[in-house]
Q: What sequence folds into this?
């Protein structure tokens, strides 16, 4: 919060020694929880502590809890709530009841301040000193990006690389697809990337928070506030301080075995002796006391070392050899392997930068944007994020929590312009997102076909079909209803090209033109007159000996109805040729004629 202030508060000022641990463990503390003989509310109030401030409760040199003051006044009212202690602030040389100075404020980390959503800034504190300046800077400015364009232009494919770039992977733009997919899968499993798809029924309750009906074991229905996909990820991002979690024994043991498998090493024992460590054939550690010809050998098994590691709090950093002999004979050897595990654990717990998180929203334009985002429309702006000068928080309607968007959360969306024009997008959303257009790319298609070693004649035909078809679609419709190059990737011969048209292109053209078969015919190069009808000599049946995408049949009113009717006129019945239906087939020469007609050639 912009006016939050931080305080060191000794536990000895709050309660007797026998009650301090119990007090530090409570989530909510009120004046009634404190001993009457300790006039804590008045003392804290007299020092200048007010609602909204943060207390670092400490016992000697150890911070035992962090608490956010929710209520405090001169009449003796007191209420504070415990906060998740992501990283304990360091005490100064004089750990007494006092306010944290500006030079010490960085110890509280933005990770602590970012979870202060309990209450808004308390009123009546305008005269209080401003909060210490926040020190966290994300790896990159908060990004709100939408990749938009016609279908098949690689939006969903590109969004993976973009998400990895925002997380800090500088090689994602040029890395092989297999590596990108593997990295994407790993980060999704770890929760650093979250993927969702918008649809017409997607609402605020699924995105931010909402009430859900929960039935307990007795059959009673209760309503509970459940976090949506965005709020859950925002909380995870806000609470991420960059501190690594304690590695498991399995992680450390696997790493040690892998290192020894590559190269044995020499380590120093407790008494200064030298030991050679190597991987044994059955996956344990062989420890050799190198003393010339009388060298002794000991095996430190995985099971034994796991027991030792699990007892490390009792054993300490430097246990005695005698204590280790209780696990297995050869205490010096066990001590040496134990120290190797401690070394690996320290490398795991080394400080790292705070992580960035990415929410990927596919088909972002298919939902009601105003209904889904609600008040988040304002909070998404980079300068309104937590930790920035204009940071903003709002009270959510269901949980009544005060919520802000952390600066290390990026939002990337994809938008298919054939489904809904970008001009129809919510203006507020357009102001807060950077729109990056992705259009059909003939050079990308040509390069992919060359890389796949596609025959030059087929490659030339595929690119020509791609270019001419999009020229016609732009002319007959608009640039939002083109066809992307991704549809044609993987084509190696005419049969593959036929399948692409049968399975994907022709159904898409029918959708584009809503049953206007004359437009579909024009896009495919089928000759029609200005009235949208083919001449009699251009009518083609399913048995046509000329390659064609469509068939056409003249329906004469008198022959169909049985008489001449004044309200009707002759019709043309259009259909997709059987060869271009999903399970169809045709000779290459026949298919070549159809594709040559589309490109404007004469065919063979």
A:
């Amino acid at each position: 919060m912009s006016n939050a202030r931080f305080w060191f508060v000794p536990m000895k000022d709050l309660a007797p020694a026998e009650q301090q641990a119990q007090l530090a463990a409570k989530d909510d503390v009120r004046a009634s929880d404190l001993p009457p003989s300790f006039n804590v509310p008045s003392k804290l109030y007299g020092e200048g502590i007010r609602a909204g401030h943060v207390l670092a409760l400490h016992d000697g040199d150890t911070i035992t809890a962090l608490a956010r003051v929710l209520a405090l006044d001169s009449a003796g009212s007191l209420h504070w709530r415990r906060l998740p202690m992501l990283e304990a602030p360091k005490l100064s040389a004089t750990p007494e009841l006092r306010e944290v100075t500006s030079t010490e404020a960085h110890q509280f980390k933005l990770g602590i301040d970012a979870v202060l959503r309990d209450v808004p800034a308390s009123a009546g504190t305008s005269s209080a000193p401003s909060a210490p300046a926040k020190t966290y800077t994300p790896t990159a400015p908060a990004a709100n990006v939408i990749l938009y364009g016609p279908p098949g232009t690689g939006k969903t494919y590109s969004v993976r690389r973009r998400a990895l770039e925002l997380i800090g992977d500088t090689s994602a733009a040029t890395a092989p697809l297999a590596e990108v997919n593997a990295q994407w899968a790993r980060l999704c499993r770890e929760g650093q990337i979250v993927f969702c798809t918008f649809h017409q029924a997607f609402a605020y309750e699924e995105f931010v928070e909402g009430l859900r009906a929960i039935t307990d074991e007795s059959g009673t229905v209760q309503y509970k506030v459940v976090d949506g996909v965005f709020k859950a990820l925002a909380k995870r991002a806000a609470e991420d301080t960059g501190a690594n979690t304690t590695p498991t024994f399995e992680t450390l043991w696997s790493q040690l075995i892998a290192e020894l498998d590559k190269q044995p090493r020499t380590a120093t024992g407790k008494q200064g002796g030298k030991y050679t460590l190597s991987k044994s054939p059955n996956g344990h550690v062989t420890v050799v006391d190198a003393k010339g010809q009388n060298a002794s050998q000991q095996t430190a098994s995985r099971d034994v070392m796991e027991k030792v590691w699990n007892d490390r709090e009792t054993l300490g950093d430097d246990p005695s050899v005698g204590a280790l002999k209780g696990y297995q004979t050869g205490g010096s050897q066990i001590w040496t392997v134990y120290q190797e595990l401690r070394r690996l654990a320290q490398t795991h717990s080394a400080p790292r930068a705070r992580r960035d998180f990415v929410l990927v929203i596919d088909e972002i334009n298919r939902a009601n944007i105003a209904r889904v985002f609600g008040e988040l429309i304002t909070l998404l702006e980079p300068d309104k994020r937590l930790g920035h000068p204009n940071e903003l928080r709002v009270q959510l309607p269901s949980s009544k929590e005060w919520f802000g968007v952390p600066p290390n959360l990026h939002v990337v969306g994809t938008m298919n312009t054939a489904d809904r024009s970008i001009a129809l997008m919510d203006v507020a959303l357009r102001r807060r997102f950077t729109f990056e257009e992705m259009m059909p790319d003939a050079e990308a298609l040509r390069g992919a076909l060359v890389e796949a070693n596609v025959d030059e004649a087929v490659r030339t035909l595929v690119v020509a079909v791609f270019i001419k078809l999009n020229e016609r679609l732009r002319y007959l419709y608009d640039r939002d209803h083109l066809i992307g190059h991704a549809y044609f990737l993987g084509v190696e011969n005419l049969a593959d090209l036929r399948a692409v048209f049968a399975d994907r292109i022709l159904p898409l053209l029918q959708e584009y033109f809503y049953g206007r078969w004359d437009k579909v015919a024009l896009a495919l190069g089928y000759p029609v007159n200005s009235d949208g009808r083919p001449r009699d000599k251009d009518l083609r049946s399913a048995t046509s000996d000329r390659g064609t995408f469509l068939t056409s049949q003249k329906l004469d009113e008198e022959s169909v109805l049985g008489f001449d009717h004044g309200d009707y006129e002759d019709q043309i019945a259009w259909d997709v040729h059987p060869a271009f239906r999903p399970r169809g087939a045709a000779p290459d020469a026949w298919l070549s004629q159809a594709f040559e007609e589309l490109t404007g050639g004469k065919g063979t």
Q: What stands out?
A: The chain is about 35% helix and 20% strand. The chain has four domains: 6-113, 144-241+354-437, 249-348, 442-599. The mean pLDDT is 81. The CA atoms of residues 209 and 397 lie 9 Å apart.
